[in-house]
Amino acid sequence: MPVEHLAYHLAREARSLGLESTDLEGVSPETVVAFAQRVLSELAALGLIHGREELDCWAVPRKSGH
C-alpha cells in the first residue's frame, strides 16, 4: 500500500472513532488506544513493524506420539 493510501486509510479510521482533529481534549483514553491499535495493525500488515505471529492455513499439525 503506498504511503498516501495508508494516510487516507488512517484518516478514515480516525474519523470513524470520532477523532476529527489533533485536539484530544475530551477524547477517552480507550478511543486513543483503539486508534493506536489500528495503526499498529496496519503497520504490521505492511511488514513495517513486527506483528503477532498467527497460525494460518500453512500451519502443520503436530505429529502424535514421540
Which helices and strands occur, and which strands form pairs?
Elements: H1 3-16, H2 29-45
Could you tell me the strand content as a percent range? Answer: under 5%
Order of helices and strands: HH
Shape: elongated
Which secondary-structure class do the elements indicate?
A: mainly alpha
Describe the structure.
It is built from two helices and no strands. The protein has helices at 3-16, 29-45. Helix 1 runs antiparallel to helix 2 (29-45).
Question: Could you provide a short overview of the structure?
Answer:
This protein is mostly helical. Helix content is 47%, strand content 0%. The chain contains two helices and no strands.
List keywords for this structure.
66 residues, mainly alpha, 2 helices, 47% helix, 0% strand, elongated
